[in-house]
From TrEMBL:
PROSITE patterns assigned to the protein according to its UniProt record, in alphabetical order: GH9_2, GH9_3, PROKAR_LIPOPROTEIN
Protein name according to UniProt: Endoglucanase
EC number: 3.2.1.4
Signal peptide: 1-27
């Protein structure tokens, strides 16, 4: 063996050892991220309710929920099923639409040929929210289907025969949280369509303002008004004040109307904007609101927005190991870990905030201040990339947690439509109880829900590819929505 060969062989062994220790063997290319972007948007077609369009690409799905709202004399067809069931929950659907829109607002220029599919995904949500907000004066329809009844069945959406009850909030039974999130979604979507469809954009923004006024004027939590059908599924644990500030912030961004700026200035300190909390989700909007409002500080350098920059720093620094403000928990493999159920929702939402804040810092020559130290935008990008890469397969299990991406991904996804044979393969109806045979089957799902990001591994990086373990194997629209923006960012970067 020559000296040069021995040297190169030794280097190779060292690299393999280092690779196994750091878990960073897999280097994704911009093409990989582009593929992940395409699939992450495609997932939303699998969640569609209503009459499917001719260009539907996930063709194993069919029309469903075509009479939603009809017994109440309103049209509530369309929209999205939130996760693996057949319920249309208004709060997570609105949050999903807001974050899809934010992904496009910040990173749409990086989406290339996928931008039209991204807009279509947003519009499927915003069209439904428009119906829900304008069908009856003084009312916002916030849910279709009784989840307690729906969850007693395992059936594909095309076969649904469980009650499609309709639930609403009103002046007598308020729901400021779901209403203000709906306003945020409509306002954010109005920005997306401002140039491509100005009249639709105006309608979205005008409706957002009306819904926000309703949310603010008639205050209360929808968890109080509709407890038995929204809890424990999507209880508003954080209350409604965070949504009011979030909604006002999005309408301000969309309209530049100074009255919303005044509202933010007057109410920010009482609505949690100055609280240092570290979880951004469908329930708690405070970290997202701070990052959103920090843009005004960077651009206008006005002192009243300084606190939003400071508290955005606190949130960002809480995610960065080694800083004096570090608060987060990570698995041994490096994944942000917040909770046992659908943990990846917190990973994708924090990745979007890290990249958005990094963008704001880069455009304005700023840094995040973590106690006596500073963190650059590059550090935030690096932290976001670790989380994105973990989801795509750079993890101890060497498994992609996005269905259909990579060589190894979940096969037993907790999702009715994906796990039950499609109406094309099995045209006759599969009744409610008969579907449980497919829930308990050891066979892979017959219909691949391409792009779905599941709940993900536990605090020790362990993952059970088991349909009955919904905490780990169930996908959700609000897991994917922020991921669209995150992978778009990396898809546009050179290898």
């Amino acid at each position: 063996m020559t000296t040069s060969f021995k040297f190169s062989f030794t280097i190779e062994i060292l690299c393999l050892a280092l690779c196994s220790l750091t878990l960073s063997c897999h280097a994704f290319t911009s093409m990989d991220y582009s593929t992940a972007l395409e699939k992450s948007i495609l997932f939303f077609e699998g969640q569609r309710s209503g009459k499917l369009p001719p260009d539907q690409r996930l063709t194993w799905r069919g029309d469903s929920g075509l009479s939603d709202g009809s017994s109440y004399h309103v049209d509530l067809t369309g929209g999205y099923y939130d996760a693996g069931d057949n319920v249309k929950f208004g709060l997570p659907m609105a949050f999903t639409t807001t974050l899809l829109a934010w992904s496009v607002i910040e990173f749409g220029d990086e989406m290339g040929s996928q931008i039209e599919h991204a807009r279509a995904a947003i519009r499927w949500g915003s069209d439904y929210l428009l119906k829900a907000a304008t069908a009856t004066p003084g009312t916002l329809y916030v849910q279709v289907a009784d989840p307690n009844m729906d969850h007693k069945c395992w059936e594909r959406p095309e076969d649904m025969d469980t009650p499609r009850n309709v639930y609403k909030v009103s002046t007598q039974s308020p729901g400021s949280d779901v209403a203000a999130e709906t306003a945020a979604a409509l306002a954010a979507a109005s920005i997306v369509f401002k140039n491509s469809d100005p009249s639709y954009s105006r309608k979205l923004l005008q409706t957002a303002m009306k819904v926000f006024d309703f949310a603010d004027r008639y205050r209360g939590s929808y968890s109080d008004s509709l407890n038995s059908v929204v809890c424990p599924f999507y209880c508003s644990y954080s209350g409604y004040q965070d949504e009011l500030l979030w909604g006002a912030s999005w309408i301000h961004r969309a309209s530049q109307n100074t009255s919303y700026l005044d509202y933010i200035k007057s109410n920010g300190h009482t609505m949690g904007a100055y609280d240092d909390n570290y979880s951004f989700s469908w329930d708690d909007k405070r970290p997202g609101t701070k990052v959103l409002l920090s843009k005004d500080f960077f651009e206008k350098k006005t002192l009243e927005f300084q606190p939003y920059k400071s508290h955005s720093d606190n949130y960002i620094c809480s995610l960065i190991p080694g800083t004096s403000s570090f608060q987060a928990q990570y698995t041994p493999g490096g994944l942000l870990y917040k909770g046992s159920a659908s943990n990846l929702q917190y990973v994708t939402s924090s990745a979007l905030l890290l990249l958005t804040y990094a963008k704001y810092l880069n455009l304005n020559g700023g840094v995040a201040t973590c106690g006596s130290s500073t963190i650059t935008a590059e550090k935030l990008i690096s932290q976001a990339k670790k989380q994105v890469d973990y989801i795509l397969g750079d993890n101890p299990a060497k498994m992609s947690y996005m269905v259909g991406f990579g060589e190894r991904f979940p096969q037993h996804v907790h999702h009715r439509g994906s796990s039950v044979p499609s109406i094309h393969a099995h045209p006759t109806r599969i009744p409610c109880n008969d579907g449980f045979h497919y829930l308990d089957s050891s066979s892979p799902n017959p219909n691949v829900l391409v792009g779905a990001i599941v709940g993900g591994p536990d605090s020790r990086d362990n993952f059970a590819d088991d349909r009955n373990n919904y905490q780990q194997s169930e996908p959700a629209t609000y897991i994917n929505a922020p991921f669209v923006g995150a992978v778009a960012y990396f898809a546009a970067k050179p290898n």
